[in-house]
């Protein structure tokens, strides 16, 4: 009788410490832990990929592809080939996403395969150069399509375009700070709208194709770089920890997305050529608007709105995914700790999302966007090539590492070689801008040794940089 209360007390202590935890209490304890939750299903995953790949390019880029290919038939072949090469790269990232279960995308993969310095340089290049320039460009495209119809045929005021761009960026940042669920649902809605815009182009084009057949002469002249009009945005890999059943949904979403985009892009180009001759397409500054004026005159004002919403989807996808790279970088000790923190009420990586905002606004005001994109594009391809090369190196070094999805080695080798070839071709054709892009990337090396590797410094300098 005297031992019974002590036995009950012991049982209670074990219950609290977790040895005899009731399932309901255990579920409640896990729910109270602040972490990024798995809220992205297959539909949201597909929407994030399609929504970031399909921006304003398909409504404008056909002019550049036709100009560099020299014929209608060859330009369609270029679009199909670029889809195949994009699929190769996407499959490589599907393997990486299922082999390494942490979020962070390229940063995580470089850290795990080639070491901390390449990973830090990827982080450095993305957040101070590449990502702000890319987001600024997309937001300017959005505002241009919103504003210019009100001022046509005159040019819209530059100040107004920049102001609308800042408002668009502010809206997207606020949305991603507020809720992961709202951001993903918005992405699904915007992806549906942009795919509807492509359908609006495809259907009239194929109706016209039934009654009209054009014969074009074929000349062989194609720029290799034009094969890559698809945007390599492996945004899904940045949010691996938030995907439901990632081993299944990451490869499936990537394959479905890339096949869908390839088919739609080729069909849209076929539709363009049924309504416009090659010379008319080359004279058009906005191919989709010219197409609508002929095929859908009643919807001529709707197309710019749809293109603007397409740009907004690309902007939202970027602001959702890329901060996860910074979040993981801070968690790994390569960035200030505050950026690894999560808002306890919203469950969003709020500091990491907010960091991009002032950089993008500053770049919009400064206006040196396109020059910076030129500098950093070759560095982007170099880091993509390093990532897939690291995957091959990791396969060789750790053959027993679990790989739920494994891409054939020949595909990974072909894609890696093509990426390095693009970098080499850029260096050959434009050594000045390519060289400056390399210099921008290498500016992160001293920062890495003064911050991440500051334990190697003398005590006095270490103390100063630790405080900094």
TrEMBL record:
Subcellular localization(s) per the UniProt record: Membrane
Residues of the signal peptide: none
Domain of life from the UniProt record: Eukaryota
InterPro entries, alphabetized: AA/rel_permease1, AminoAcid_Transporter
GO cellular component: membrane
Pfam family of the protein (one): AA_permease_2
GO molecular function: L-amino acid transmembrane transporter activity
Main localisation: membrane
Membrane-protein topology: Multi-pass membrane protein
Alphabetical UniProt keywords: Membrane, Transmembrane, Transmembrane helix
Membrane-spanning parts: 40-61, 73-97, 109-130, 150-176, 188-211, 223-240, 252-275, 295-322, 348-366, 372-393, 405-428, 434-452
Name of this chain's protein: Uncharacterized protein
Organism of origin: Anabas testudineus
